Amino acid sequence: MSARRGSRKWRPTLGLVVLTMLATVAALPLLGLSFVRLYENQLVRQTEGELIAQSAVVAAFVARDLETDPARADLLGAAAPDASLPIIEPALDLTVNHSLDRRPDAQEAAKAASPTALALGERLAPVLARVKATTLAGFRIVDRDGTIIAGGDEVGRSLAGVEEVADALRGRFRAVLRARVSKHAVPPLYSLSRGTSVRVFTALPILVDGRVAGAVYASRTPNNVMRQLYGEGGKVATAVLVVLVATLGIALVFTRAIARPIHALVARAVALGQGAPVDPEPDARFGTREIALLGHSLDNMALQLRERSDYVATFASHVSHELKTPLTAIRGAAELLRDDGLQPGAAMSAAERRRFLDNIVADTARLSALLGRLRELARAERPGAVGIASLAAIVSDLRRRFPDLDVRTENADAWTLGLSDEKAGIVFGHLADNATRHGAAVLQITARATAGHLHVHVVDDGTGIAERDRARVLEPFFTTRRVEGGTGMGLGIVQAVLRAQGGTLELAAAGGVSSLGGARFEITLPLAREGETEHA
After folding, report:
1. Strands ordered across the beta sheet of 453-460
2. Which residues are registered as beta bridge partners of 139?
């Protein structure tokens, strides 16, 4: 039931994942609009900073003119809190400072401006007009009472009731955001921006001899991101087209590099599951390195499974044949003994009966030997943790187990094998046992290392292997000692142990590392790495 629930678990398709990714990428420009407020806030502060700088220049110009006027005492108002204004940094923030209502209209002045102030205003008027034409900023110069003496068409009227102007006449700088009043309709695209609906106002006091002589009242609408986009419609359209083309290009790359190869892998897996032939070196285009690696791994796995299946089938055929022979002999002998016992007079002599019983016992022993070797083979083919065995210890163990065999070494005592002591004992024990059963009195072990592998040559002085048998000596169940009870599985067990640890066993050619004329085997294993141990 749990497996069935697991198979029904919903999983997104690769196409859905890719589509989601592409949609996210395509939506990034739209998500960028959420940061418009941040950019607008920067534009507001930039506008405030520019107005501060321009107002400071105008205020300095007015203050210098007043300082040289003999009648300046009549133009100065209240004492300023500070003899000079501190450094003024832009501080307006769209997210913090609430926008005030539109600037109130100028009112009738309670007191007319002095002729000296009006004369100063007339001199400033051309300068302010040029500044406005260049910077698009509006300037109003007010005297100590808040009466406009220069700037715009409100000269002679009063702005004393405007709160930021009132603060400036008390000697403090003030900047505010006010609702913007425009003569033109706002384009629909501007509705996404708050910056289109506000105007920055700054009021900077004019200080002379530590007293307030008036104020510079400046205003300007900040630049707007949406206005720039609206004015650059062609470029925006080009950018959108580029994003669409890039998105389609990414989709094509994903399709060719991921979707198609995965569908090809699925079809290949289905074909392999249905028994299609396995190509050990497929030429399919898998797109990316990871998918190519997955494809090659799938083919290698299928090839190994196919080889394993063929091996199991062949092995099963050999096992059935090897078991069938003694079982047939046992059955025949048992039937003869049964039939002889059922006859009224025993027709079989005691010697014959003894011979048949001996045959049954011998075949039973052969079956037991076969089953024992099969168990050894099963254990040998099971991969285990890699261990480290010393060749010197292996040679010492062989000398103890085979006292009649002269075990010699050449360049071997210093090497270690990537096998556990138990498996090393199985490998070299079978080779030494084969040597003694073929009349060997000397067994020579030689080792050498090349390209990360250790090659161990095991040579004896026995009768050797006939030329006609060399091609079959490593086949399972092949033996030249069947009459003597040989099972033909000893070398198969050795191969299984070595194969499980990444090694091989080969029948070496005559000559080479030894002058002995018997059987010559070469064991190849990866070099043992220090620190490897076998776990029980």
Report:
1. 406-410, 442-450, 453-460, 520-526, 504-507
2. 218
524 CA to centre of own chain:
37
Rounded to the nearest 10 degrees, how much is the dihedral formed by the CA atoms of 191, 192, 196, 199?
A: 120
Beta-strand pair 138-143/211-220: antiparallel
Calpha distance 461→237 (Å, rounded): 89
Lookup: tokens for 165: 């102007």
- In one-letter notation, the amino acid at residue 384 is G
C-alpha neighbours within 13 Å on the C-beta side of residue 170? 10
Cα–chain-centroid distance for residue 154? 69
Distance (Å, rounded) from C-alpha 504 to C-alpha 499?
A: 6
Which of 14, 24, 200 minimizes the C-alpha distance to 97? 200
Any idea what DSSP says for residue 418?
S
pLDDT of 488 strictly over 70: no
The count of residues in the chain is 536
The pTM score is 0.45
> Measuring CA to CA, which residue among 455, 265, 503, 486 is closest to residue 365?
486
Cβ 512 vs Cβ 402: under 8 Å: no
Closest CA relative to residue 165, chosen from 211, 112, 118, 218 = 218
**Cα atoms in the 13 Å half-sphere on the side-chain side of 216:** 23
Average pLDDT over every residue of 151-171: 91
CA angle at residue 293 from 292 to 296, to 5 degrees?
A: 85
Q: Read off the amino acid at residue 227.
A: R
**Residue indicated by tokens 């009227």:** 157
pLDDT confidence bin for 381, thresholds 50/70/90: low
d(CA 282, CA 385): 32
The rounded distance, in Å, linking the Cα atoms of 457 and 444 is 8
Q: Which parts of 74-229 are beta strand (E)?
A: 107-108, 138-143, 148-150, 157-158, 174-179, 198-208, 211-220
Tell me how far the alpha carbon of residue 119 is from its chain's centroid: 76
Cα four-point dihedral sign 308, 309, 310, 314: positive
- Whether residue 109 contacts residue 147, with contact meaning beta carbons closer than 8 Å, is answered with yes
Nearest to 462 by CA among 382, 414, 402: 402
Task: Compute the average pLDDT of residues 208-219.
Answer: 91
pLDDT (0 to 100) of residue 534: 41
Kindly tell me the number of DSSP H helices and DSSP E strands found in the chain.
13, 14
Report the pLDDT value the prediction gives residue 164, as an integer from 0 to 100: 93
Distances (CA, A) of 321 to 313, 324, 455, 481: 12, 5, 35, 17
Q: In degrees rounded to 5, what are phi and psi of residue 74?
A: -75, -15
How many C-beta neighbours within 10 Å does residue 118 have?
Answer: 16
Structure-block tokens of residue 441: 């009195």
Long-range contacts, 340-348 (Cβ 8 Å, 24+): none
How far apart CA 402 and CA 423 sit, in angstroms, is 17
Q: What is the pLDDT of residues 85-120, one digit of tens each?
A: 788 899 998 878 888 999 999 999 888 888 888 888
